[in-house]
Write a structure and sequence with these properties.
Blueprint: H1 3-29, H2 32-45, H3 48-69, H4 75-89, H5 92-116, H6 124-130
Helix pairs in contact: 2-5, 3-4
Length: 134
């Protein structure tokens, strides 16, 4: 086999794998779990109270992180943040979103395991770490 033919074969294999990746991505978007997640996400994005509580939690989180960086964060600050987050998560629209997200994450983890199974002997960390070890 000539070098040009070998390179062409490698290019075709790369293209085939990329095409399979796109097909997999498209198939995932057709899963009921993905569709449920997208619907729940849209519901949260269109829910005024949820958006207000999300903004509040983000503001409190940012303030807490800044206070923590300068050593002024208190247990009361943390409790305020946690209380706001719990209040957000108690909204039925957020409960549905979080459940849909967890369900989709479970599906994606299963898919990732199926993809990774044939690659079990490949350890990038070991290869990279091995180059610099005495």
């Amino acid at each position: 086999m000539s070098i040009d033919a070998e390179e062409a074969g490698e290019a075709n294999a790369d293209a085939d794998v990329e095409a399979l990746g796109r097909e997999l991505g498209e198939a995932i978007t057709e899963l009921p779990a993905y569709e449920r997640y997208e619907a729940a996400k849209a519901d949260v994005e269109n829910h005024e109270e949820a958006q207000e509580r999300i903004a509040e939690v983000e503001q409190l989180r940012e303030e807490f992180m800044l206070a923590r960086q300068i050593g002024e964060a208190s247990q009361a600050d943390l409790q305020t943040l946690q209380s706001a987050q719990e209040s957000l998560h108690e909204l039925p629209v957020m409960e549905e979103y979080l459940e849909a997200q967890a369900d989709l994450t479970g599906h994606l983890e299963t898919i990732n395991e199926a993809i990774s199974e044939p690659l079990a002997d490949l350890d990038f960390g070991e290869e990279a770490g091995g180059c610099c070890v005495d």
